[in-house]
Amino acid sequence: MHELSVDLHKVPWSCRGSYLSLCTLAGPGGGQCPHTDLYLSTHQIPIGRPMFALRPSVEELPPPQGFLTTDSPTTFGASADTLHWKLHDRTVAEAVFQDARILRVRGTIPLNLDTDASVLGGGYSSYIAPVQSRHKLPSMLEFTTFGYQGMYLVALKGEFTCVNILTADDGNRRITIKSSEGGDWELAIIERETSLVSDEGSERFETLPDVVAALSTVCFEDVKSHAHARFSEYAKALLPWTSNASSTETYAAFAMWTSTVRPMGLLKREGVLMSKLWMDKIWSWDNCFNAVALASLGLRPALDNILIPYDFQTPQGRLPDSVTQCEILYDFAKPPIYGWALFKIQEVAKIDRRSLEPLYEKVSRFTNFWLVNRTSSHSELCHYIHGNDSGWDNATCFDEDPVIVSPDLAAFLIIQADWLAVTAANLRRGNESEQWVSTRDRLAHDLVDELWTDDGFVVKSARTGKLIKSSSLLTLIPLVAAPYLPKPIVTRMVGLLDQFTTQHGLATEALDSPLYEPDGYWRGPIWAPVTALIESGLRKSGHLATADTIRARFMAMCDVSGFAENYDAQKGTGNRDSCYTWAASVYLMFAREAIF
Q1: pLDDT at residue 443 above 90?
Q2: Measured on CA atoms in the order 192, 103, 6, 17, is the torsion positive or negative?
Q3: In what order do the strands lie in the sheet containing 151-157?
Q4: How far apart are CA 114 and CA 152, in angstroms?
Q5: Quick one: which of 247, 267, 292, 535 could link to 2 by a disulfide (CB 3.0–4.6 Å)?
Q6: What DSSP state is assigned to residue 14?
Q7: Residue 297 — very low, low, confident or very high, per pLDDT cuts 50/70/90?
């Protein structure tokens, strides 16, 4: 496997299961810090919260004043398993995750951990307190801030000195760990847990002496060795098509690894966040692309990521917009691409009947949410009530009227009805299978009958019935359902792709449109999910050359620009969140399908 070098100016360094990360970017848009140090952030708080700036003491620092804006005299870098700070060419500190809860750090010069009152709040918004115990424990501190479960900092070797930790007057605080007798020091950062489960599945309790005793049984070098082995095993399982993974394949595996969180709080399953920068949620269509990639790892992680939103399905069948361990939002819906995703997963892994039965029921209810609750007197098809419902938040097709009957929605429901028909037949529910076949065929007919014109698909106001022509790529998303549509219509849509095609892939707005914006979110940039959906429909309908070109251009762009939230369609450079898992997942899906 290619040895990975993590760019800590773009990519959060974490490990599978952890809610902690280190990066020079933190908070909304990465802007809650001056990017001069590495910031220890928690993702137990939505959008991420930088708690400490970590800086080795090469020179005397001013009194605590929040995150320092001066450049650090040290440099930093990381592999998939170990992070380091260097002074010139000498490593002065390094960090490694012992497990999902415990970060171990050691060094030869003091390390400062500074808070910032403008981020955490002043006064009692956060606290750091020395742990008092009758037991013989090393020096320990307890830290928490509003909305966070809290952590312990344990000086396994060395000692703490602290500034402002016991006062409410100044929220800028500093912890320094240093050697007490010369030599090196060692720190353990341990996230508090709300519940623990034993290997046998029963509730487990732990005390501080238990935690410290467990730490003392594993030396730092062994922790490094185990961390390296854990990621290597994960990447090998996720990349079964190669024994010599490329740098981009390894990076994609790390993007998935570093963005995974353990079950905690509201989350009942292990899940892959979209990012451990600021897009640190699980949105109810983003998860589908991650699930497809994770099918290589095994059926369990794939289905867990599919089912996370379904753990919060409403009586209407609606899914939440987004999920975190502390927040469930139902403000918007998300498009019904679960049929597409499950067909993809089943190309890699067989879903047993025991898993298929409840999955069928859940997807049926979600499909009926659209078919029953999102129809109007002006159409036989379903509609969105806001751009966010489609996942294309600000696409230009929503400019004239946000409440639209959209061709992509019908296409997704066609595929989902087909998956339900096939699954019902496999479950020996013949009548239900026939009903879903009828729904599938009706939707395919009505999509063409209502929304196809000589110029391609259009959208329709669900309030007035007015047809609205659009220059958004969204009107070509029905290519995902190409096998269900008349061949002349598919051929015409393939021709229309030229209006959106650059050397890097498919722009989301026509290139000659006056509404095109290079960094306009859904008004121009290339997006991984759109690429995956259109490519899959082209391939299934026999347009292999076009599908191959789209796949190759997307992968080449990722080889250069990494896994961004979206990309400038003309330049191929990344926009917005710079480590976004659905881009990594689509890359992995394409790499797998190119081989298998």
Answers
A1: yes
A2: negative
A3: 75-78, 82-87, 90-97, 102-107, 185-191, 151-157, 140-145, 126-130
A4: 15
A5: 247
A6: -
A7: very high
